[in-house]
Automatic annotation (TrEMBL):
Pfam family, one: DUF6311
Record bears the keyword Lyase: no
Lineage: Bacteria, Bacillati, Actinomycetota, Actinomycetes, Micromonosporales
Keyword field contains Nuclease: no
Protein name from the UniProt record: DUF6311 domain-containing protein
Length: 602
């Protein structure tokens, strides 16, 4: 996520439109290739390893479009977690995406819009890095293309393409880098600061955690780069204009983000920290040497299970690539000027710092916790940082690798090796390091259809406008059907129904920290137990009274059991759910393709 200061625009050679077109086609082809499993049937397939997050982002797109067209607050909603609501500012609200793509969401539906954004994210990340490299850093289009593709389709990016619309929006990073260094332009600090402030606000809306990591990485890089003796004169000359621009950026971004930031840190339903264990969600030291699952090497059986889940393979560069990077660094250092060495040194320090931080609070080697404390043990106690997952800090390393590979290709093109075997060795080295990491398509599965009870609008006969409907099991991360139903109703402008639970981050975790979904109550605990185990729980009169209290608390008007219930982590036993609900509430009625228990409005 870091780079050296771009040279003056006058030093950039004329654009090679053919190379640019080839790069655009390659980037789009790779993006479609990675997401090809979903393109087979956008509304009928889901990402296998992360269907719950996909459901969440589809809901965010539908809710954001609905909020925009109905004048609702896009950062807080009472459609989930009745009666307390959900603070979307402390979640990943992707408000800008939801607003920009609202027409598409209404036209083709949230699942298809999700797929369009995911595919564009991957392609745009490659093109944005290519633009930054080719226009500001390396004159060789081939070098820029190699670096951009390595970054955009690195193991971490492909891993997060498993439904993370925020982390796959890597195109934001090169734009942030570009506008940050533009603050050095003399006499344009006001304009450049304002543009950068708007970009920061957009980045916060789409990927707040990614923006934070980018800011940390650039701070480390700039501190090391500016302190180098070769750059002190240039730094002193540019500093006044740079600081004025940063001040304008802070004012503009602060004005645009005043309400979201207040809601995030002081609003209702906020929390501090996160509900995730930083030791579990840290990078295994051995992961840097391993290969990811969705790669040629992974398909060949060289993958490992060193990540906490398939969406968090944030390093996984493999031994050949790391060796190649070390060789490239040494090669560049040997041929570099003093100013270029300052850039290389700053890149190296940044990569080392974020590698160590990604290892989390204690060292884990090949799945074994050593108990040896690491710097994140202390840094992770600081505000804001305590909400970050340390493993994701490894994502900073990939752009450094891409930059070093691009610089090396550019150097070799400018000054080709005198001996043919040397040039061949470089080509073989790049091939051995990069070919095993070529991405393979994301795994997908057929998703359970949305019941006709929802798609036909029949639910409106059983739920008052804005009233509460709940599927069983209740909607949480492992059973996300309810949010898919709600997203469908919102996107097809059927009206609103609220859900008593939902997949979101909210308060209720230990020591005031966050947790996924609401704190469980009797009814949802019983439904979860029945659906997961296939056995009817023991039910007494006292149990029924607690369940009635839960339903009154949520103001539930309709309880719905679909014939096919999606379990994101395990299969759901629909028959056990029907038996349990019948024991608690009496016999249901059959309406279209669901079992329905109606309750009087409260």
């Amino acid at each position: 996520m870091v780079t050296g200061p771009p040279p003056a625009p006058s030093s950039v050679p004329p654009r090679n439109r053919r190379a640019d077109l080839v790069m655009a086609l390659v980037a789009l082809a790779l993006a479609v290739w990675v997401t090809s499993g979903l393109w087979q049937n956008p509304n009928g397939r889901a990402i296998t390893v992360n269907s719950s997050d996909q459901a969440l982002f589809e809901w965010l797109l539908a809710f954001g479009a609905h909020a925009l067209t109905h004048g609702d607050n896009p950062l807080f909603t009472y459609l989930l977690n009745v009666p307390d609501g959900v603070n979307l500012a402390v979640n990943t609200s992707i408000t800008v995406y939801a607003a920009v793509f609202a027409p598409l969401t209404y036209l083709i539906g949230p699942p298809a819009t999700f797929l369009v954004i995911l595919t564009l994210n991957l392609a745009a990340t490659a093109l944005a890095w290519y633009w930054l490299l080719s226009r500001h850093l390396v004159p060789t289009r081939l070098a820029a293309g190699v670096g951009a593709l390595v970054i955009a389709f690195s193991p971490g990016m492909v891993s997060h393409a498993n439904a993370h619309l925020n982390w796959s929006a890597g195109w934001l990073v090169p734009l942030l880098v570009w506008r940050l260094f533009a603050l050095r332009e003399s006499g344009r600090w006001l304009r450049n600061g304002a543009i950068f402030g708007v970009l920061v606000a957009v980045a916060f809306s789409i990927a707040a955690e990614g923006l934070f990591f980018t800011a940390l990485a650039l701070t480390v890089f700039l501190a090391v780069w500016a302190a180098h003796p070769a750059n002190r004169v240039a730094v002193r000359a540019a500093l006044p204009c740079f600081l004025r621009g940063i001040a304008v950026t802070a004012v503009v971004a602060g004005a645009l983000l005043a309400y979201p930031l207040w809601l995030h840190f002081a609003g209702p339903q906020r929390f501090h920290g996160t509900g995730f264990d930083p030791v579990v969600h840290s990078e295994d030291m051995a992961a840097y040497l391993a290969y990811p699952r969705r790669s040629l090497a992974g398909e060949a059986g060289l993958r490992t299970s060193l990540a906490p889940n398939p969406t968090e393979e944030n390093s996984f560069f493999g031994v050949p690539l790391l060796l190649l990077v070390l060789v490239c660094f040494g090669f560049l250092w040997r041929h570099a000027t003093a100013t270029r060495r300052a850039t290389l040194f700053a890149l190296g320090v940044t990569a080392v710092v974020f590698t160590v931080l990604s290892w989390g609070p204690q060292a884990v080697v090949d799945g074994e916790r050593t108990g040896f404390p690491l710097p994140f043990e202390w840094l992770g106690q600081l505000p804001v940082i305590n909400a970050a997952l340390p493993a994701r800090l490894a994502l900073v390393v990939a752009p450094v690798i891409g930059l070093l590979l691009a610089y090396t290709v550019d150097r070799l093109r400018a000054d080709p090796p005198r001996h043919r075997p040397t040039g061949l060795a470089w080509a073989v080295g790049y091939a051995v390091a990069l070919l095993p990491l070529l991405p393979t398509p994301l795994l997908t599965i057929a998703r359970e259809p949305i019941p006709e009870f929802i798609t036909s609008g029949a639910w409106r006969k059983h739920v008052s406008p804005g009233g509460v409907l709940t599927p069983i099991p209740l909607t949480v991360d492992v059973t996300p059907d309810g949010q898919r139903w709600q997203a469908y109703a919102l996107a097809h402008q059927q009206g609103e129904f609220a859900l008593p639970a939902g997949f979101f981050l909210g308060p209720g975790g230990p020591d005031g920290r966050g947790r996924i979904g609401p704190v469980p109550r009797t009814f949802d605990s019983l439904m979860d137990q029945a659906g997961r185990t296939g056995r009817t729980p023991i039910i007494t009169d006292g149990t029924r009274e607690l369940v009635r209290a839960d339903l009154r608390h949520w103001r539930v008007e309709a309880i719905v059991l679909a014939d096919q219930v999606h379990g994101a982590k395990y299969d759901i036993d629909e028959e056990a759910l029907r038996r349990t609900a019948t024991e608690l509430l009496g016999p249901p009625q059959r309406v279209h393709d669901v079992w329905l228990w109606s309750l009087p409005p409260r």
